[in-house]
Amino acid sequence: MIPIIGFTALPMSANDIGDEANKILRKHQGSVLFRPESVNVEWLVELVLSEYGYCMELKPDTYFADDIEAVTDFQTRKVYIREDTYNKLEKDDGRARYTLAHECGHVVLHTEQWLQKLATAARAVDITKVKPFISPEWQANKFAAVLLMPEQTFWPAYCDLVQEQDMLNGFEIQELASIFKVSWTAVEKRIESLRKKKGLLM
Ligand SMILES: [Zn+2]
């Protein structure tokens, strides 16, 4: 999921990235933009991959370094995914779903750029040192967050929940995680970024 050596991507704002993810949702599963529900991420990503000429290939866990769950290979147009991560999709595991959405972000946002960089023999860089807006990892994470938790339905669902009285602390996180089938961490980050976007104090 997070290769250290990569390339700097063309700068993209969170809004531009969100537009790309929304385009895909509108085309394939528009209902998620109207009511709070989970994206059928496995089906959706396979569809998008085939549109870009990619396919998904399962690899044994030993194929990957410790904390890597999937890798996008732009040259061979393959998304390699750990077998155990893939199996967790069946159980609607939030982290596995996010991993798949993240790789989909690389395919959509970076395929053309990567091929052009290859043609110009650009030097690989340590992407942990590049600024967020040109980091392919930051961009793919933003894409995944929007794909799994579209603002149009996630934000109203969040507002409804926090307005409920007698609410236990953390209840809304748990509720949103189960509606959108994502991890608690993903929900917390999405709330934080939407609150910032809307100019609300943290
Ligand atoms: Zn990545």
Give a short summary of the structure:
The chain is mainly α and 202 residues long.
3D structure, described in words:
The chain is mainly alpha-helical. The protein has one domain (5-197). The chain contains eight helices and five strands. The strands form two sheets. It has a three-stranded mixed beta sheet. It has a two-stranded antiparallel ribbon with strand order 1-5. Strand 3 and strand 4 (78-82) form a beta hairpin. Helix 1 packs across helix 5. The relative contact order is 0.17. Mean pLDDT is 89; it is low at 1-5. The structure holds zinc ion.
Give me some keywords for this one:
55% helix, mainly alpha, disordered N terminus, binds zinc ion, 202 residues, 5 strands, 8 helices, 3-stranded mixed β-sheet
Average pLDDT over all residues: 89
Can you write the helix and strand succession as a string?
Answer: EHHEEEHHEHHHH
Summarize the amount of helix as a percent range. 40-55%
Q: What is the 3D shape?
A: globular
